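Q: How would the structure tokens look for this protein?
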Amino acid sequence: MLYYIHSFRHGHVTDMLQAFPAIYTWMTYPLTMLLDLIWSAGHSSNQLPRVKDIELCSIAERALNFIHMGNTSVLLSRLMKPLWTSLGLLRDGWPSFNPRLVHFNDKKSLDILIKRWPFDEKKRVPISSAYVG
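A: Here is the predicted structure in token form.
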């Protein structure tokens, strides 16, 4: 008990609480940059966004939701497990993407290999995280 009183008096706990929000910024930076990349690519032309960009945006938003709330129900395992996104989040706390499905060319472009996208055999359609019902 004395340790806790000492910590409060000397500011250790308050220093930690002040640093705590910065951890979210640090941990979510790659995802927010990915969302910025998708947003800027979609708004560089006057066309509708590509479906695969919407899917990747939805996956990034689900990962952000998990990082902020810690609720695993937002991780759509049948899609995010083959993408490695949920595996990375649950194991290391960092989102990751399977390079066989999502390939980052440089800081300004990415390719989504739709031919390798997870497929729902029952419905005979690609699995979607954006249109889950």
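Confidence is low (pLDDT under 50) at residues 1-8.

Residues 24-126 form one domain.

Upvote if useful.
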